[in-house]
Amino acid sequence: MVDVSSKRVTARTAVARASIGMDRETLDLILADGIEKGDVLGTARIAGIMAAKKTSELIPMCHPIAITSVELDFEVDRKTSTVTAVATARTRDRTGVEMEALTAAAVAALTVYDMCKAVDRSMTITSLQLVKKSGGRSGTYARE
Fold first, then answer.
1. Predicted local confidence at residue 138, as pLDDT
2. What is the mean pLDDT of each run of 10 residues along the chain (144 residues)?
3. On the chain, which terminus has fewer CB atoms closer than 10 Å, C or N?
4. How much is the pLDDT for 144?
């Protein structure tokens, strides 16, 4: 692991997203709470938040940090039959919170897949990406 002991503790924020495309019927079932396993987006939200807290256990060289907040929201696009998980993670620490935000978005999308795979095996998870980060020595980054 990289030594971050000489870095200053600063407020840091990261936003990441992951999208999952599906059949229209699957999206309709999700929105109507018609998936047999239960509330898809509610469960995916909890799974993503839980995963963010476990990031350093999953990614070998990722520092364990004191996460102060994780929010997970979903954008639904009926035209493209896509659900996008948008994760925002915050910390006051010596290193960034990008990996936690990315992990939250990825696991939220995986959870949607798991809960809906009985009705739609053609779902595709795409576009896992860092949208924005702020804080720390490297400053602010925003995807164009």
1. 87
2. 92 98 98 98 99 98 97 98 99 97 99 98 98 92 92
3. C
4. 83
Q: Is 77 a catalytic residue?
A: no
Closest CA to 86 of 32, 12, 13, 10: 13
Structure tokens at 3: 């030594």
Which one is catalytic: 3, 39, 77, 114?
Answer: 114
- CATH numbers and ranges of domains, the chain: 14-133 (3.30.70.640)
DSSP state of 86: E
Question: How far apart (Å, rounded) are the C-alpha atoms in residues 77 and 136?
Answer: 34
Which residues 6+ apart lie within 8 Å of 60 measured at CB?
none
